[in-house]
Amino acid sequence: MRCVAVRHVAFEDLGVWEAEIRAHGFKVTYLDAGVDDLADAADADLAVVLGGPIGVGDRDAYPVLDEEIALIAARLETGRATVGVCLGAQLMAAALGAEVRPGVAEIGWAPVTLTADAVAGSMRHLAGAPVLHWHGDTCDLPEGATLLASTDATAHQAFESGAGLALQFHPEVDGEAIERWLIGHSLELTARGIDVAELREQTATHADAAAVAGVLMIRDYLRARW
Q1: Structural element, H or E, at residue 3
Q2: What is the distance between the alpha carbons of residues 8 and 88, in angstroms, rounded to a whole number?
Q3: Strands 2-7 and 27-32
Q4: Overall number of domains in the chain
């Protein structure tokens, strides 16, 4: 089986999910958006579209986003398992015809509120566990999609639509690699007035529990499908 991860910046990778995906029998490869030919992800058994500092509203400046939206739409139309994380979730919403727009910025560790549908599935492992939020955009819930999670600031933190799972937050992140995020997103953190030292301390407090929850979540997700 093949898992293809579409990556936008090198440090936003599969994180703690990668070893679990490999252990489940997948060969994992990365495609770098804007550099690699994304066609290789079209027929992968599992595709994961990861996060990044650009957004759906930047499609004119970054045409690869249109390519990704088309890729996600084609995969969902053919029932191929596709997971979108942060930017990937917003691209999935766009692929399903929902509006993506600027929202309330959330950067830091906090839990999400799960719906009954989420508690009944693999996301139950995230109940009560702070997860990393790092986004400034939000989306409407696509028509026919099932809402899975929300926060006070962002109503649609996660949803499921057919073979697609969209997660606005980052259950895949490895807290041991947080310095790459802090350095790579330094301009955004400064612009938003985020205290880097405080975010680093939050990570030390919450990342281990979040990693366990994230691994258990992806494990159950994979078991349910393969």
Answers
A1: strand 2-7
A2: 10
A3: parallel
A4: 1
pLDDT, position 12: 97
Q: Please choose, from the candidates 169, 153, 11, the residue with its C-alpha nearest in 3D space to the C-alpha of residue 83.
A: 169
Q: What is the CATH number of the domain that holds 201?
A: 3.40.50.880
For the stretch 13-40, pLDDT in tens is 999 999 999 999 999 999 999 999 999 9
The residue whose two tokens read 């650009």 is: 54
Write the CB contacts of 216 (distance below 8 Å, at least 6 apart in sequence): 122, 125
Q: Per-residue pLDDT tens for 111-136?
A: 999 999 999 999 999 999 999 999 99
For residue 205, the one-letter residue type is T
- What does the block give as tokens for 146? 């099932």
Output the six-digit token pair for 51: 């996060």
Cα–Cα distance measured from residue 2 to residue 203, given in angstroms and rounded to the nearest whole number: 31
Spatial CB neighbours of 63, under 8 Å, sequence gap ≥ 6: none
The H or E element that residue 53 is part of is: none
What are 165's strand-pairing partners?
A: 83, 160
Q: Which helix (DSSP H) or strand (DSSP E) does residue 158 occupy?
A: strand 158-161
- What domain range includes position 158? 2-225
Q: Name the region of 110 (left: φ>0; alpha: ψ -120 to 50; beta: rest).
A: beta
**Tokens 């990668």 map to which residue?**
18
User: 87-95 and 64-77 are packed helices; what angle lies between their axes, rounded to 10 degrees?
Assistant: 60
